[in-house]
Design brief:
about 90 residues, 434 Repressor (Amino-terminal Domain), 4 helices, 2 strands, mainly alpha
Length: about 90
């Protein structure tokens, strides 16, 4: 997973806060589903999206949206024992 900060170089105190963009590779996305013991169709049901959309994320035909990354993180956090760390594994 890669995180990028999008912030203009000429910022002032009135500028909006920086925007962070999280990029999850298709391999990381597939690994997260495997770690969660979820099929693509199962994850589509949880995320309330069409299974074809999940297939496109897994194949790298579409970027995995930020809210989907957050959902994966939340699902992974529920599965982990407390104090075991965080983040998507690759």
């Amino acid at each position: 997973m890669s995180v990028f900060c999008a912030r203009p170089s000429n910022t002032s105190s009135q500028d909006p806060p920086p925007v962070f963009v999280v990029i999850v590779t298709p391999a990381e996305f597939r690994a997260a589903l495997t770690d969660l013991s979820l099929s693509q169709v199962g994850f589509a049901r949880i995320a309330r999206v069409d299974p074809r959309t999940v297939r496109k994320w897994a194949a790298g035909e579409r970027a995995v949206p930020g809210p989907v990354v957050v959902l994966l993180e939340l699902l992974a956090a529920q599965k982990r024992p407390p104090g075991s760390g965080g983040g998507l594994s690759a």
